[in-house]
């Protein structure tokens, strides 16, 4: 995805972030916020933008007496897992090691511990962010509670720049059971049986287990299926819990009793450093009938031109996720059975359009039997994306946006927009001089001010355009 920002500001602390927001306001510079840079549609980047990159803000600490974990805004899953595991703790984080914890948790946060500990956002106790004025504010259940509610499920980048988070620590553990089941060279009919088994099994599955299941069509394996997951218990018990899958023809399986860190490391090793793909996600709120299952299998029966992998993945929900009331956080789809994710992967750039069209053409069929989309697996072609991502919470989120970002300072193509007047010149100038002189001796900031002046002289940035009319 080729995008060219004018400036990338690598912030080292929350004051750097505050300076960057104030400077962008001064220059009418469109902002993007980046940590791990894993947004599937590239919304953490943009042409002619100022990218606030928090990836160097990687401080982590914990207080065992208070049962609290303190995480700066640039920490990744890998860094967090290594830290908590060294103290004997697990954490309900994501599966990809290089994903930023802030973006993960703000979007809800699905992971292989979610049915046991809840989504990533369910462990949040407090956030600290830089708001549209460049001020550093906190939000928790007692202070800015509406903002705290919105930031637990409404995605990153809508209300400010997250500079730190406080999480509740889960109980200490010794080991978990890592579950791996594979079925190679299967038939479409066997994939149908697999999907039926999946939804029947998930309806009353033990909450200590969280699985990903997948049917796929790849150059290397042909039609195939797999299961990966964690069980917070011993292998013998795990084997009994997933017995329906082991009874399917061709099952090859392994149950390893390993440390939590080993388990997340093994899962994370399956992610390539880079790949070209297009995908779309949906929530499943009901059981599929036989005809619907057959139609789902047919979605991946033929790969698009140039595709090396086409798959339909299922991410288990339920358990602790559904025990929390829908209105407790901005994550709306608490009652979904699972997330379903359609994807295709290619290697040569010339096949990009064919693969994108393949997803676009299949989306209506998938949408007809599903409801809403997961904001952490975004899709640029979604109609009515606010309602798709946030359901009935969309209207409340617009009100929170109006309160905490009245001038749409924090925007991106699928952000939460509101109709507003442009900021006044006095507001744009507010705080710029005193803020920049605070670090006048810092070489990095001297360079930053120089770039600011050059950009301002060349008029590279235009005042922000109000795109909110179609969203209100």
Q: How would you describe the overall organization of this protein?
A:
The protein contains 17 helices and 15 strands. The protein has helices at residues 14-27, 77-86, 101-106, 114-117, 145-150, 188-202, 235-241, 243-246, 260-268, 290-299, 320-323, 352-367, 385-390, 394-404, 425-429, 432-437, 443-458, and strands at 7-10, 31-34, 50-53, 60-63, 68-72, 124-130, 136-139, 161-168, 175-183, 209-218, 222-231, 252-259, 276-284, 307-316, 338-346. Helix 2 packs antiparallel against helix 9 and helix 6 (188-202) crosses helix 10 (290-299). The longest helix has 16 residues, at 352-367. The radius of gyration is 23 Å and the shape is globular. The two termini are 30 Å apart.
